[in-house]
Design brief:
3 domains, about 50% helix, N-(1-d-carboxylethyl)-l-norvaline Dehydrogenase, domain 2, eight-stranded mixed β-sheet, about 700 residues
Length: about 700
C-alpha cells in the first residue's frame, strides 16, 4: 500500500505532502500516526533538511481530524486514554522537532488536524471560504485529546480558546488569523511559496513574534491567575446554562484547560487524556457519534436507488414573499449562489420579502462571513415582481404560500403556465399531501414537496416529499439543491404531516390537554427544556404560529381521526388574535424582539386555573410517550425509509435531544415492553390517544427493536 506522507528536499527545505490513499479527505489513523513519527524521525536525521514545509495533497481539505471508525471501536476508558496519549506523544515530537516546521493550510482543518497545526511552529492559511479551522470534538461528546486543550489557550488566551472549544466552533481562516491561530493569511495560489518561504526564514534563525489579541482587558483576564479564575467561573456558568448538565464534554474540556494552565503543560496533557478516556465510552458520546455517522451517510443518500443526475439549478423562482419565502430566497442566494426571482400578489409584499431576504445577507456581512464585495454581488441576485416575469428561465420553482390546498393548487396552475416543461415545482407545504396538490397538475411528475423549517436560515432540515408520480430526476434535483442550501435532506413518504409534523402534533396537543388540567404554561416549557429540548412545547407553538399550528392540526385530524385532534385551547387563542411571536402575543407576550413572560390573560381566556396539574414526572412521561408512540406508528406506515432518517429529522427539525439519539433510538433504550405497559396505563386514565401502536406491541412480543 502506498504511503500517506511523501516529501522532496530542495534548498534545505523538506516539502512534505499528506495524501491518504483512497480517501476523499485526510484523517489521522493509527497507521498515519506511525507514519508521521517515522517521517519526522527520518527528516530529523537528514543533514540536508534544515526545515519542513507541510501541505495536504487533497484539493480542498487539509486534515478533517481523527478516524472516527477507530474511535468507535474503543470499548474501555483505558483504551481511549491510551489513544489520546498516543496522539499527544506524536504531536509533542512535532512541537519539539529540532528543525522548524511551517504548515500551509487550505480547506477543512479540524480536530486532530488543527491540533497538528498548533504543534507546528508557523501556520499559513488561505483566505478561501473552504478553509475552516476548529476543534469540534465536544459535538461528538469528547474533548480535543491530542493537546488541543493545552496548546490553543497558550496561543490565543483562555477566553478565545474556551469560546471555540466549549462550543465546538469552526472559524473561517480570516477569523482564525485575527485570533492569532494563523500567522499569515494568503490567497490559495501563493500558499506553497509563502509557507516554504516561512520555513526557510526560520531555518535561518528568524522566529515569529506573536501578540495575543485582546489588549489590556485580555492581559487582565488571560495573563494572571485571578483573571483566569474569573474567566473559568463565567465559562462554567455559561456551559451549565447551555447544556443543563446533559452534555458532560464541555465541562470536562473546561477542566482540562483550567488544569493545564494551573499545573503546567505536562500535567495538563495527562489530565486531558484521562478526561478524554472517561468521555469516550459514555452513552452521550456514543449517541452523538451515531448522529455524526447518520448525517454523513445522508449527505450521499438521494432517497432512491440508482438516482439519476439532478438538474443543475442556476435560477430559482419563489411564489410567496412572506416569512418563509423570504427565508428560502436569502438562504438560497447565500448558500447556493443562484439567481432568485420572488413573486407575490402585490409589489409592496414583494418589496418586504426582498428586504427580509437581504437581511440574511446583511447578517452574514455583519458577522464577517462574507466580504462587502460578496455582499454586493449576492444582493444583485435577488429580484421580484407581482407577475410571473422571469419564471420561464427557472429550473426550480418553490411555492411558499398559505397552507391551504385550494390556494396551493391555484398557484401550481399559474406556475405551470409560466415555466418550461422541464421545470420542477416544489411545494413548501408542512402537512398537505403532495399528491393532493398535484391533482390539478399537467405535469404531475415534475411536482414534489420541499418542506423547509422556520427560520430557514438557521434550521438545518429539509423534508423532501415525492408523490408516487414524481419522477426520479425530480427527487434527485430537490435533494441536491437542498444540500447546496446547506440543508440535511431527508426523503419521506407522502403522508399527511409527513414525518416531523406528524410526530410533533401529538406532543403539542398533549401540552394543550395538560394546560386544561392545570399545568402552568412556563412549567411545561421548563420541564421539557430540562429533559433536553431547546424550547418547550408552548414556546414552540408561539414560534411556529398558532394559526399555522391550527391549520396543520386540522389536516392531521381529518387524516387520522380523534387521535390527532387538537386540544380546544389552541383555537380559542387564534380566535382572540393570539398568533404567537409574530403577532406580539400568544401564550407569552413579546416586545422589542424578546419574550416578555406568560400573558396572564390566557388563563382567563381559556377558563383554566393553573394549580400545578399532574406531577412533573407524569407531565414528561405523557409528552414524550405520545410522541414515541406516533413515531413508531409512522415508521410502520413507511413514512421514513429507515430509523436513521426519522431520528435525524426529529433532531434537526424540532430539536429532539441529540444526547438521547432521536425518538426511535430512545424508544429502543426504553424497550418496547416498557413502552407498551406505560402507554396502556396512560390509555386507561386518559383515553385512546395513548393506545400503543401495533409496531410497539409487535416489538414487545418479539423482543425486537428499531435498530438491529
Amino acid at each position: 500500500m502506498a504511503g500517506s506522507l511523501t516529501w522532496e528536499v530542495a534548498d534545505g527545505i523538506a516539502v512534505v505532502t499528506f495524501d491518504l490513499p483512497g480517501e476523499p479527505v485526510n484523517k489521522i489513523t493509527q497507521a498515519v500516526k506511525e507514519e508521521f513519527i517515522a517521517t519526522f524521525e527520518t527528516l530529523g536525521r537528514d543533514p540536508e533538511v534544515n526545515a519542513v514545509a507541510f501541505f495536504s495533497g487533497k484539493r480542498d481539505a487539509f486534515i478533517a481530524g481523527a478516524d472516527i471508525e477507530e474511535f468507535v471501536a474503543i470499548t474501555t476508558a483505558a483504551e481511549a486514554e491510551r489513544l489520546s496519549a498516543g496522539g499527544q506523544a506524536m504531536l509533542e515530537r512535532v512541537a519539539r522537532f529540532a528543525k522548524p516546521v511551517a504548515v500551509g493550510i487550505h480547506g477543512a482543518c479540524l480536530g486532530g488536524g488543527l491540533e497538528f497545526a498548533l504543534a507546528c511552529h508557523y501556520r499559513v492559511a488561505t483566505d478561501h471560504p473552504k478553509t475552516q479551522l476548529g476543534l469540534p470534538e465536544v459535538q461528538l461528546g469528547i474533548l480535543p485529546g491530542a493537546g488541543g486543550c493545552q496548546r490553543l489557550p497558550r496561543l490565543i488566551g483562555a477566553r478565545a480558546a474556551l469560546d471555540m472549544i466549549l462550543a465546538g466552533k469552526t472559524e473561517r481562516a480570516a477569523k482564525a488569523f485575527r485570533l492569532g491561530i494563523v500567522d499569515e493569511l494568503v490567497p490559495p495560489p501563493i500558499l506553497r511559496d509563502i509557507t516554504v518561504g516561512a520555513a526557510r526564514r526560520m531555518a535561518g534563525g528568524w522566529r515569529p513574534r506573536r501578540r495575543r489579541s485582546g489588549g489590556a482587558l485580555g492581559w487582565l483576564l488571560d495573563g494572571n491567575p485571578l483573571g483566569r479564575r474569573l474567566v473559568f467561573r463565567a465559562a462554567r456558568r455559561q456551559v451549565l446554562a447551555t447544556t443543563r448538565g446533559n452534555y458532560p464534554a464541555p465541562l470536562a474540556a473546561l477542566e482540562a484547560v483550567e488544569y493545564g494552565l494551573r499545573h503546567g503543560m505536562a500535567e495538563g496533557l495527562k489530565r486531558e487524556a484521562q478526561l478524554f478516556g472517561q468521555l469516550a465510552v459514555t452513552d452521550v458520546s456514543r449517541k452523538l457519534v451515531q448522529i455524526f455517522f447518520a448525517t454523513t451517510q445522508l449527505k450521499k443518500d438521494f432517497g432512491i436507488s440508482n438516482p439519476p443526475k439532478p438538474v443543475e439549478v442556476r435560477r430559482l423562482a419563489i411564489v410567496g414573499a412572506g416569512f418563509m419565502g423570504a427565508g428560502i430566497a436569502g438562504t438560497a442566494v447565500v448558500q447556493a449562489g443562484v439567481d432568485v426571482r420572488m413573486k407575490d400578489a402585490d409589489l409592496a409584499r414583494v418589496a418586504k420579502g426582498l428586504v427580509a431576504a437581504r437581511e440574511i445577507l446583511d447578517d452574514r456581512l455583519k458577522r464577517r462571513r462574507i466580504t462587502r464585495y460578496e455582499h454586493a454581488r449576492l444582493v444583485a441576485l435577488l429580484s421580484g415582481d407581482d407577475r410571473y416575469t422571469g419564471f420561464g428561465r427557472a429550473e426550480l420553482v418553490i411555492e411558499a404560500v398559505f397552507e391551504d390546498l385550494a390556494v396551493k393548487q391555484q398557484v401550481l396552475r399559474e406556475v405551470e403556465a409560466a415555466v418550461s416543461d422541464g421545470a420542477v415545482f416544489a411545494s413548501n407545504t408542512s402537512t398537505i399531501p403532495i399528491a393532493r396538490i398535484a391533482e390539478v397538475a399537467r405535469r404531475a411528475e415534475r411536482v414534489i414537496g420541499m418542506h423547509f423549517f422556520s427560520p430557514v436560515a438557521r434550521m438545518p432540515l429539509l423534508e423532501v416529499i415525492p408523490s408516487e408520480r414524481t419522477a426520479p430526476e425530480v427527487i434527485s434535483t430537490a435533494v441536491a439543491f437542498g444540500r447546496r442550501m446547506g440543508k440535511t435532506a431527508v426523503v419521506v413518504r407522502d403522508r399527511p404531516g409527513f414525518w416531523v409534523n406528524r410526530i410533533l402534533a401529538p406532543y403539542m396537543n398533549e401540552a394543550g390537554h395538560l394546560l386544561l388540567e392545570g399545568a402552568a404554561i412556563d412549567e411545561l416549557d421548563r420541564l421539557m427544556v430540562s429533559w433536553g429540548f431547546p424550547v418547550g412545547p408552548i414556546t414552540l407553538l408561539d414560534e411556529v404560529g398558532l394559526d399555522v399550528a391550527e391549520k396543520a392540526s386540522g389536516v392531521l385530524h381529518a387524516a387520522f381521526g380523534e387521535r390527532l385532534a387538537a386540544a380546544p385551547a389552541f383555537s380559542k387563542l387564534v380566535q382572540d388574535g393570539r398568533l404567537g411571536r409574530k403577532a406580539g402575543r400568544g401564550f407569552y407576550r413579546y416586545g422589542g424582539g424578546r419574550k416578555r413572560g406568560v400573558d396572564p390573560a390566557v388563563s382567563e381566556l381559556l377558563g383554566i386555573h393553573p394549580n400545578g396539574g399532574p406531577h412533573a414526572a407524569e407531565i414528561i412521561q405523557r409528552l414524550v410517550l405520545v410522541m414515541l408512540n406516533e413515531a413508531a406508528r409512522a415508521v410502520g406506515e413507511g413514512v421514513v425509509r429507515a430509523p436513521r432518517d426519522g431520528d435525524i429529522a426529529a433532531i434537526f427539525g424540532f430539536g429532539f435531544p441529540p444526547f438521547r439519539g432521536g425518538p426511535l433510538r430512545h424508544a429502543d433504550d426504553l424497550g418496547a415492553a416498557r413502552l407498551v405497559g406505560e402507554l396502556e396505563r396512560l390509555a386507561e386514565r386518559h383515553g385512546g390517544r395513548f393506545t400503543p401502536c401495533d409496531v410497539l406491541v409487535e416489538q414487545a412480543r418479539r423482543g425486537s427493536k428499531f435498530y438491529l
